[in-house]
Design brief:
With 241 residues, the protein is mainly α. 80% of the residues lie in helices and 0% in strands. The chain has helices at residues 2-12, 23-50, 54-80, 84-87, 94-121, 131-136, 141-175, 177-190, 198-215, 219-240.
Length: 241
């Protein structure tokens, strides 16, 4: 009877708990991310030596980064024979998650505004050479569309699968939820390679982990990530007009 109960529980277990990543899996994923960043940065700088269209190259780098992330996810999926549900792509009710997403968005932006005010008080502003400043500033209608697609659609879908569905899950199996949340949020923020923006992205990373863990689904974290990026992109565009 006990065996039958355990069998039934295993069959009804959340997809997020069915499969775990080993240390080797995590090392390969994190190593792959580092290699992607290094190779794309090297390639971008080499191309820039003879084709100095910096803005175009930054867009190519951004899209190639997301493509390489997707290939990394796809490779893990094929090697480990995972289904998309194993990453957390499980449907949830919009009515169930909407208020939580909006509440967390308000909290993260309140913290971000406070953080920005502190930086401004001490005379710290984003450097003009910052990649995000260059991409989001001086927008035209077609660059705004590109920015919205890249930041509001592509990045949330792929990065949530990678950072929450793989990295957080893998770390959680070895460290526990809260330690994994802090480490994965720090990795998520640090890999944006933007020192002054580390704290806001870290806070966002914690909120995204919370949603993913609470609902055992990527949809809420993707929604918050997309909402955050879309509004940030639109604000940046309006300020550059």
């Amino acid at each position: 009877m006990d065996q039958e109960i355990e069998s039934n529980l295993a069959q009804t277990e959340s997809p997020l708990l069915k499969r775990n990543l080993s240390w080797i899996d995590l090392a390969v994923i994190l190593g792959g991310i580092v290699i992607i960043y290094v190779l794309l940065a090297y390639g971008t700088f080499r191309i820039m030596e003879w084709w100095p269209h910096e803005r175009v190259l930054m867009y190519l780098n951004a899209f190639m980064t997301q493509l390489c992330f997707f290939l990394l996810i796809w490779t893990l999926k094929k090697i480990r024979h995972w289904e998309w549900a194993d990453f957390g792509w499980r449907a949830v009710s919009l009515r169930e998650i909407l208020s939580k997403i909006l509440g967390l968005y308000a909290i993260t932006w309140t913290i971000n505004i406070g953080y920005v005010l502190v930086l401004l008080k001490y005379g710290l502003t984003p450097p003009s050479t910052d990649v995000y400043t260059k991409l989001l500033g001086q927008t035209t209608w077609y660059t705004l569309i590109l920015n919205l697609f890249l930041a509001g659609v592509l990045a949330p879908l792929i990065e949530e699968t990678l950072f929450r569905g793989i990295i957080f899950r893998g770390l959680q199996a070895h460290f526990g939820k809260w330690t994994a949340a802090v480490i994965s949020a720090a990795i998520f923020s640090g890999l944006h390679l933007q020192a002054y923006g580390f704290v806001p992205r870290f806070v966002l990373g914690i909120a995204l982990v919370y949603l993913y863990d609470k609902y055992k689904s990527l949809y809420p974290s993707v929604a918050l990530h997309a909402l955050n990026n879309i509004i940030a992109t639109l604000l940046a565009a309006s300020l550059s007009i």
